[in-house]
Specification:
Number of strands: 4
Order of helices and strands: EHHHEEHEH
Structural class: alpha+beta
Strand content: 5-15%
Mean pLDDT: 78
Distance between the termini: 38 Å
Low-confidence stretches: 31-36, 184-195
Largest sheet: 4 strands, antiparallel
C-alpha cells in the first residue's frame, strides 16, 4: 500500500527531455531541442543525476531553449514554498533549491500527478503576485517514487532534508511540514519552525 511519495520537479530548463543522463519525458516538443537527440525516458525510480554524460552536449542543448532557464534565488524559493503551503496536503519534507524542488508527501485524495499540477499552479500564482512574471515557470515533467513502508518513507524524508547540504546550503525548515515520525536528534533537523529564506 502506498503511504507516501517522493517527488522531484524543476523550473523551466532544469532537466531537458533529451538529457543524456535520462529523463521522465516521452517526446521532445521543440525541433531546436530535438536536434540534440530524442527523449531519453528511463523507468528507474533511482536518481540519474550523477550518471556520467556529455556535459557539453547537455549545456549546448540548453542554449536552444526558447526562454532562459528559470533559477530561483532565496526569496523566490520562499515564495514557491508559500504557494505549496496554501494546499492542504500532508507535507512530510520540502526543500526548494535554485533549480529543483524535493517533496515528500503523504497519501493524497487526488492522483499524485494532479497534486503536482496544483502545487506548481499555487507556486506560480505566488511568484506572479510577487512580480516574477516568467513566460514559463515549470518544466512539464515530474520524477516520482511511491513509498510503501515506514523505512522507505523515513529514507526519503532524510534524503530531502539533507539535499540542500549537497549544494553547500543549510537544511530548510517550513512551518507547513509535519513529518509523521519523531524529529531526529542529530544535526539541525528540527521540525515545524517558521519558514526561513533559503540561501541563494
Amino acid at each position: 500500500m502506498v503511504i507516501g511519495y517522493h517527488l522531484i520537479f524543476g523550473p523551466y530548463g532544469f532537466w531537458l527531455p533529451n538529457d543524456p543522463r535520462g529523463s521522465w519525458s516521452d517526446y521532445v516538443a521543440s525541433w531546436e531541442l530535438y536536434k540534440y537527440g530524442p527523449a531519453t525516458k528511463v523507468s528507474t525510480t533511482r536518481s540519474v543525476a550523477h550518471r556520467a554524460h556529455d556535459v557539453h552536449k547537455r549545456l549546448a542543448a540548453k542554449e536552444s531553449l526558447k526562454y532562459p532557464p528559470v533559477v530561483f534565488d532565496g526569496i523566490q524559493a520562499k515564495t514557491v514554498a508559500e504557494g505549496f503551503a496554501e494546499l492542504d496536503y500532508p507535507f512530510y519534507a520540502c526543500s526548494v533549491l535554485p533549480d529543483h524542488v524535493h517533496l515528500v508527501l503523504g497519501r493524497c485524495r487526488f492522483e499524485i500527478e494532479k497534486a503536482v499540477t496544483q502545487l506548481k499552479a499555487r507556486a506560480t500564482t505566488r511568484l506572479k503576485k510577487a512580480g516574477y512574471d516568467y513566460p514559463v515557470v515549470w518544466a512539464a515533467s515530474c520524477w516520482k517514487v511511491f513509498l510503501n513502508d515506514d523505512e522507505s518513507l523515513r529514507r526519503a524524508i532524510r534524503y530531502v532534508e539533507d539535499n540542500p547540504l549537497k549544494e553547500g546550503k543549510k537544511r530548510q525548515h517550513w512551518s507547513f511540514v509535519h513529518p509523521p515520525f519523531s524529529p531526529r536528534t542529530e544535526g539541525s533537523g528540527a521540525f515545524g519552525l517558521t519558514p526561513g529564506t533559503p540561501e541563494p
